[in-house]
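Sat 14:20. Reprocessing the chain from the morning session after the first attempt stalled halfway. Input below, unchanged.
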Amino acid sequence: MPEEIAGKIFHAPGEDTGHPEMSEEERAAILAQFDAWNADKASLPPRNPEPRTEENRKFWDDLSGTEYEEWQEQRRKD
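Finished this time. Tokens:
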């Protein structure tokens, strides 16, 4: 039985979702697209990250400026 959480519907593994299964040909075509994208990505030069300064501190990670910021700073002290 599908379960609705926060406006989204979740199905149990193996439960019928009403979508047809992907054929092996479709799956191979999608994986080939991923491989091509990863090859393009690997051919790019590495990015140089911005230096860590107080001006761009809020972009250091995903936890800065959120309710988890105090938790993160406490973890660093431990």
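The two ends are 44 Å apart (CA to CA).
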